Amino acid sequence: MSVLLQLFLAYTLILLLATFSYKEKLAQEREIFITSIRCAIQLLILGYTLRYIFSLRAWYWLILILGVMTCAAAFIGAERLKLKASRIFLVKVCFLSLFLSTSIVFFPLLALGVIKATFREVLTLWGLVLGQAVNSLNLAQERLASEAINRKDEIEAKVALGATLKEALKDCIKNAISASLIPKYNSLKAVGIVFIPGITAGMIIAGADPLKAIVYQILVMYLILGVSLFCAYFILHLTYPLVFSSLQSRTNLFKKKRRRRDSNPRREE
Q1: φ, ψ for residue 26 (rounded to 5)?
Q2: pLDDT in tens, 192-238
Q3: Cα distance between residue 258 and residue 48, in whole Å
Q4: Tens digits of per-residue pLDDT, 48-65?
Q5: What is the pTM of this model?
Q6: DSSP-derived 3-state class of residue 54
């Protein structure tokens, strides 16, 4: 079966979804068509790009591509950081967290030969774990902000008693890291019982030995867990002062607005 025919037959599912949405008046037809077409175009571009990249042999190209991927991930991660800091600073912090966490886990396995030193394997695995690291980065930072809001009085009391800000936020950072890893732990617990992971399914469909596919999937999931933990750790330790300062700024702004409102009460009619 040709690739174009496979794409056409696969798109019939989208047509069925759009038809169902139209009949049930769900108003999702436009979004279904736009997102599905965009997905197909992006993945086809990716396929042709990877075909070209895999034909390269110079390692400096691989290093350049990995750097570009990490920079793109840093920009995406910085967009969701709700901190009072310049965009450039947030991108730098995200880049440092992503690069360090991925390198710490990735390069030792590469040196030991667990990961093969080929364009195909290095580029694919780097991109895979990088995407997961961005999710952990944002989840950890959002949870730390939430913890700081809920425990603001406790944190201020610890600082007043002589603790450093880092010591006062120690439990919040610990809880934030734990929360960011919950999706990874759930995947590790459910894999092989509740669902078959995508890499395993893809390799088996492509004709690979099921046991080899499973071993490779285990490697990938361990990589994701390791990178996610280190990324959450780095981003929290690099941004915790900004989290608390942003919280104090919002609190002061709220107090000013409340005082202004109290000082100008509405006259009773």
Answers
A1: -85, -15
A2: 887 778 778 888 888 888 888 888 888 889 999 999 999 999 999 88
A3: 58
A4: 888 887 787 778 888 888
A5: 0.76
A6: helix
Query: In the 3-class helix/strand/coil scheme, how is 203-259 assigned residue by residue?
Result: HHHCCCCHHHHHHHHHHHHHHHHHHHHHHHHHHHHHHHHHHHHHHHHHHHHHHHHHH
* Residue 191, SS3 per DSSP: strand
Identify residue 257 by its one-letter amino acid code: K
CA nearest to 134, candidates 99, 175, 86: 99
Identity at 180, one-letter amino acid code = S
| AA identity, residue 237 | H
The single residue listed with the structure tokens 């034909």 is: 55
CA–CA gap between residue 96 and residue 76 (Å, rounded): 14
Q: Reduce the secondary structure of 98-157 to three states and give it as a string.
A: HHHHHHHHHHHHHHHCCCCCCHHHHHHHHHHHHHHHHHHHHHHHHHHHHHHHHCHHHHHH
